[in-house]
Write a structure and sequence with these properties.
- The structure is a homodimer.
- With about 350 residues, chain A is an alpha/beta fold.
- The first copy, chain A, is built from twelve helices and twelve strands.
- In chain A, strand 3, helix 7 (about 140-155) and strand 4 form a beta-alpha-beta unit.
- In chain A, helix 1 packs across helix 3 and helix 2 (about 30-35) crosses helix 3 (about 45-55).
- Chain A starts with 16 loop residues before the first helix and ends in a 10-residue tail after the last strand.
- Chains A and B meet through helix 4, helix 5, strand 2, helix 6 and helix 11 of A and helix 4, helix 5, strand 2, helix 6 and helix 11 of B.
- The structure holds a DNA duplex (30 and 30 nucleotides).
Chain lengths: ~350, ~350
DNA sequence: TCCTTGAACGTAAGCGCTTACGTAACCGCT
DNA sequence: AGCGGTTACGTAAGCGCTTACGTTCAAGGA
């Protein structure tokens, strides 16, 4: 953990609190109180100290402050992959609010590796962040989940704050997108268009998000006598390339499908590219749907029918939860899923 | 800066170095040396301490370590907007290498506001990061630039490490994409197809990146008796919506253009959507080009002719520079620009 | 055998802050 | 005038670590 770290500068030319105090002719205790807005300093004195601090360009040393028990001003954010638009937009929401609150954010991305995620959560906690936000689906794996839960619990017990996005089984503050409802809506849209030979391209079912979305889809399919279990389904990486792979395999296994539901937009984009390469018209021959409504979904050709999730807002709310005083019971905010019908879906050819 | 921060937990149940030392029956100095791999401890003793530490689940307190003069393990990254694929991919490169090196990354995004950027650089430095990476075009504004430079210089003088991406005028380690060369390549491609009535949609020229890209384009245009100065050019926000706006205005001002060069992919995407809305065939009637080659460029319809920049690699290299020991002279690494010809460009109708 | 030497470990002094507690001055009250 | 109660500030004890400097002890040279 240290190895390649750069060495801290010895003193630096940065003024210290003692410099400010001396210059203002007060004790460092008074200076500290004045600058932190604590009680016990006269208004005139506080003003004087603040002025001197400004003149000297004084900025408190975060490490010293935190070590001494002051307020923390950094929060941690763990995502699967920051390069993904889904997570990038969540991060953007978090960063936006953080900046407004004068906080900075430490971000880790796990590359979708459960072990790495656990390690990173621990690292963030060790780094002394005041709050941790974990974004992205949890892993179904019992053992990992137990460890994550235990880690977060003990962090909470130590006074840390935690919020998760899309992981409703953890008993902590949660921002939960309506994965089930969204899955239901999109599947219902597809069947209501008349599709009955439907294929699904999915990420790993080890992700709870997938599980929930599939659950919603299943309900809609059941309503017309189908079901996820009896539907051709291919699992692949939850990415564009995974979508390509899955689409290829799906077309092989079930060449007669009239609709393909992808479990996120990235996979749908991959599927679209495969269909384009094959010269299969969308939605003429096959309809395609996504999930998330990443920014580019509207710019694809055909523009993508999908379920919109307010990613930025979700990030923002997660931070809000994390910043609000801890509650006895864990709170939950729901992020609405909204069906966005665009040009990639149509009734099947008869 | 403090205000909304959460309060640091008082003790927490986290084991401290003294706990490890006691358990192992040594002094904390020895324990510290053993864990940091410093000399002066016998191998057997070091092993014992490490074992105990592992058993106790000991993780060093970052703040204490840094305050005491240990190595820093967090680096700062400043980008314009983390939600943009361009910056998200840079961040992904940084995070990837950082994780491998056992470092964590504090990310700020300025929302393209020069003042905010300066503030955030200062905040990161105040937070005690060991290195800061500033990504994204610099602002041409003299005053701001001087302040940024001064801030980074004094940070460097204090032993901090700095690397910038795409800001060649700062005398610090730089990863520089070939903006000029890329601009030249794409413009040359367009004119070589036969286009002579070309429009440009651009972000603010206050960004050095834009300046450089336009410079390259100008050289290519000059070669056929044109030039940026005599070319219809619309400035707007460096985003998808900015691209829409700019495209609308451009079509009004110069309805007879046969090609539109956008200064990044986001703007090109916006332009494409306007053209689609208007029913203007691309590239049938108007060719469109972008810049950056964000992931979705290949998935648009038509797929986008653009200039590829290795964003992830740029981020990675920036961190590499920042981690390598400081050199007397500032180093520069060049990120190659590569023309990617896809389906959005064609010869003009005759 | 005595002294030098260096490896191995302990002692303790901070790093720059926050804050519990102590102290002095001052208020109004009886 | 004498008292308790504020208020405004100073003193000093850490927060959990790193590291310069001491100390101890075994090995080696004379």
């Amino acid at each position: 953990m240290a190895g390649s770290g750069t060495r801290a500068r010895p003193h630096g030319s940065r003024p210290r609190l003692s410099d400010v105090a001396e210059e203002a002719g007060v004790s460092i205790a008074t200076a500290s109180r004045a600058l932190s807005g604590a009680a016990g300093v006269s208004e005139s004195m506080a003003d004087r100290v603040r002025t001197v601090a400004a003149e000297l360009g004084y900025v408190a040393n975060l490490h010293a402050r935190t070590l001494a028990g002051g307020p923390t001003s950094v929060v941690g954010l763990v995502v699967h992959e920051i390069g993904d638009p889904y997570f990038a937009e969540i991060a953007s929401g978090v960063l936006g609010l953080a900046a407004a609150e004068g906080l900075t954010v430490q971000i880790c991305h796990s590359g979708r590796d459960p072990e790495a995620e656990l390690t990173q959560i621990r690292t963030l906690i060790a780094n002394g962040v005041g709050a941790v936000i974990v974004a992205g689906s949890g892993f179904v794996d019992r053992e990992i989940r137990a460890k994550v839960t235990a880690t977060l619990k003990s962090y909470l017990a130590d006074g840390g704050r935690v919020a998760v996005i899309g992981r409703h089984h953890l008993a902590v503050d949660t921002v939960q997108p309506e994965n089930d409802k969204g899955g239901h809506a999109i599947a219902e849209h597809v069947v209501s268009l008349g599709h009955r030979r439907i294929g699904i391209i999915s990420g790993s079912r080890a992700l709870t998000t997938i599980h929930d979305r599939l659950g919603g889809m299943d309900r809609a399919l059941q309503a017309v006598g189908l079901g996820v279990a009896s539907t051709p389904l291919v699992e692949a990486a939850f990415t564009r390339d995974g979508g390509k792979e899955a689409a290829l395999e799906l077309l092989e296994r079930a060449p007669d499908v009239t609709a393909i539901m992808a479990l996120n937009d990235d996979m749908a984009i991959g599927a679209l590219s495969v269909l384009r390469d094959r010269g299969i018209p969308v939605p003429g021959q096959i309809s395609v749907t996504g999930f998330d409504d990443v920014a580019v979904a509207q710019d694809l050709a055909p523009s993508l029918t999908t379920v919109r999730l307010p990613m930025g807002e979700m990030g923002r709310q997660a931070l809000e939860l994390a910043l609000s005083p801890a509650a006895k019971r864990s709170r939950r905010r729901t992020a609405r899923a909204e069906l966005i019908v665009r040009a990639s879906t149509a009734a099947p050819r008869t």
